[in-house]
Inverse folding.
């Protein structure tokens, strides 16, 4: 892994950690660089309502600004707060409310992309819905390298 790839992974891990600190659920860090040309990582999380989604978005932006020195180059969905996309270049953070996350199932579009263990972000007790738990357990049966 080169320095640019290491930096992108670090941004993804910091974003996941920031989301976790605001009680985000269903946190997935997906390495999509072999399937997409637009970025290296997706960080996909859920917030229960508008207030929590807004809080998660603020926390991710602040923590990445302070700890990684990056700001989003694009932000979408802040008016409705059902699905907010934060584009940090090599990392795209998706913050969903559960209904829209279940509808779009973004994490399954590139199902063969490796999932990074959230423990690498210091997240020790993540909360997962039944659907995401099943997805993660299916993925763990196959090697991710």
């Amino acid at each position: 892994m080169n320095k640019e790839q290491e930096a992108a992974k670090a941004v993804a891990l910091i974003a996941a950690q920031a989301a976790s600190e605001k009680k985000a659920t269903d946190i997935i860090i997906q390495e999509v660089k072999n399937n997409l040309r637009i970025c290296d990582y997706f960080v996909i999380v859920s917030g229960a309502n508008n207030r929590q989604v807004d809080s998660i978005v603020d926390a991710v932006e602040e923590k990445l600004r302070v700890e990684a020195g990056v700001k989003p180059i694009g932000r979408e969905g802040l008016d409705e707060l059902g699905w907010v996309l934060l584009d940090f270049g090599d990392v795209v953070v998706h913050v969903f409310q559960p209904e829209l996350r279940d509808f779009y199932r973004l994490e399954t579009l590139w199902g063969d992309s490796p999932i990074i263990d959230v423990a690498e972000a210091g997240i020790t007790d993540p909360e997962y819905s039944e659907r995401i738990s099943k997805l993660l357990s299916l993925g763990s049966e196959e090697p991710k390298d």
